[in-house]
Design brief:
181 residues; 7 helices; Rossmann fold; alpha/beta; 50% helix; 12% strand; five-stranded parallel sheet
Length: 181
């Protein structure tokens, strides 16, 4: 039985670093965020400028890429996977930045996946500027949108907060506890 740990949270909450750390700690696979892969490729091709980082037209390729990446890693039949993000985050960002949420994207977000632990990282660590990120103000607004979406979809999530090692240790404890169920 495949078990998935999915890290969600707004920008600059340490999802990538924590997902990599946990995947190392539990000797599991790390599943990256497809949006970063996609935007890096666009950058390599010279299709990104400071004013043109991402657009509404990028939502579908990013969402499809994320879904394909998730499907590919799940098909590997590994016992435990750590996901840097989920399609839910793609939907939330699409709504926030482009006021765009196509039905197929809404439908692709499942609220009741079995064998899944969701870790909701809080924006209580310093914001690290990155060309692929919004602003600190966006960060807090998106955080509240995530909370609302979790409630609307009746999705259970474990809150992870605190500075580096406190955050990491809490996440480890929650994963251990969940694996024992």
């Amino acid at each position: 039985m495949i078990k998935s740990v999915i890290l969600i949270g707004t920008e600059s909450t340490g999802k990538t670093a924590l997902a990599k750390q946990l995947s190392d700690d539990f000797e599991a696979l790390f599943v990256p965020e497809y949006a970063r892969i996609y935007l890096e490729k666009k950058k390599e091709l010279g299709l990104i400028t400071a004013e043109n980082m991402i657009s509404k037209e990028d939502v579908a390729p990013i969402a499809i890429g994320q879904l394909n990446l998730e499907t590919t890693f799940l098909s590997l039949q590994r016992e435990l996977l750590f996901f840097d993000t989920s399609i839910l985050m793609t939907l939330i960002y699409s709504r926030y930045y482009f006021n765009y949420s196509p039905k197929w994207l809404e439908d692709s977000v499942s609220s009741n996946k079995q064998n899944q632990l969701v870790l909701f990282l809080q924006p209580d660590i310093p914001f690290k500027d990155d060309p692929q990120r919004g602003s600190v103000d966006d960060r807090l607004k998106i955080h509240f949108l995530i909370q609302k979406e979790l409630q609307t979809r009746n999705m259970e999530a474990v809150t992870i907060q605190g500075a580096d090692e406190i955050r990491t240790e809490k996440a480890r404890r929650e994963v251990r506890k969940w694996l024992l169920k």
